[in-house]
Amino acid sequence: MDTIASLFSFITTPVSWIIVQFHSLYGAVFGPDTGWAWGLSIVSLVVLIRICLIPLFVKQIKSMRNMQALQPKMKAIQERYKNDRQRQSEEMMKLYKETGTNPLSSCLPILAQSPFFFALYHVLSNIASGKTIGVLNQTLVDSARQAEIFGAPIAAKFTDSEEKVAALHASLTDVRVVTAIMIILMSASQFYTQRQLMQKNVDLSVKTPYMQQQKMLMYIFPLIFAVMGINFPVGVLVYWLTTNVWTMGQQMYVINQNPTPGSKAQDSYLQRLLKSVGAHGEVRGRRRRNIVQAIVAKGPDRNENERRFIAGLAKAGYTAQADGTVVKGGDTVASEAESASGARRQQPKRQSKSQRQSGAATAQATDTKPSLEKQDGSPSDAKPEGKAASASSARQAKSGQRKGQQRPKHPSSKK
Questions:
Q1: Which of the residue ranges 96-105, 206-215, 296-305 would you say has the lowest mean pLDDT?
Q2: Virtual torsion, Cα 130, 134, 136, 141, nearest 10 deg
Q3: Residue 345: pLDDT over 70
Q4: Cα end-to-end span (Å), the chain
Q5: Whole-angstrom distance, CA of residue 311 vs CA of residue 108
Q6: Phi, psi of 149, rounded to the nearest 5 degrees
Q7: Longest pairwise C-alpha distance within the chain
């Protein structure tokens, strides 16, 4: 770990400078040699870094959603070119390029944090050894060595020997208890964050290998951090626990405000939006209107959550507009699309043979009135009415006989 941290020594000076600036602020409140002053300086370092990484987090969210949407196509490419690895890779890269997806975008926040993480580890290792580093002079190093968090020096580790801990004026039991609790909290927060993502913010209608990989990472990552955590100084554990809590809170906000389409989180969000519309009679907020606008634009391609939302609006007497607003009753683009899609789905009922013949005979009887007369000019006998007329018309239609005026038979024809 020391070798890896030394590779990032170029950033130790900026990291140490940021810590010193925060320490001067908190030291004026809590005292310069207290664990609160140094601990809060590390926490503030994390917050500052994560604020700067918000654009990368947004890219990570978009990349993860794009990867979820591409999983069926990726699986089809793998099956089609399973015997040609080179062609498979080419088709994958082509798919990424066409959709503008970068598979590495989901790792950007972690990769961007790595230099700061190892730089902080390098700074704390030097503090434990009593060496100056970056802008930390000997006075600040001695002050940091005396700082304790719940009885554990910020430079102490779980694996430190009793002699090394005694040199920091602390108890080995206190160090191990504090570090063990922080390692458990760090791993638990990592597990909960990943579990929250898998259970609430994943489109459950699409079953892909990507989901299986995410489930494996949900269990593997906490174990990795638990094993590595015993070699982290208390200050680094504070750093990583803080960044995990930040990630968890940031993800909860995204899940509640901008959930993945087709997920449980989207269903909960649309139900809350439906209640808000029922209470206020309008869609409040531009972001909410944008979501309703996107749902209306989908038309018949809406998922089950979105169809329930549109049906709920209709049940409450509202209809969604193309601009994301709602109105009381009325026809909208959304309702027209629903009616059109419903009309396409409904097929006419198939009639039986007798029903078709009876219908044809009734239509002929309505359109044409018989005017048969006898040869002496007297009117012909009235045609039977009711069922008899219908039966006679049906027989004539079936036998192919013409209705109306009949030609007289030739005298030589047989009777």
A1: 206-215
A2: -10
A3: no
A4: 118
A5: 40
A6: -115, 105
A7: 140
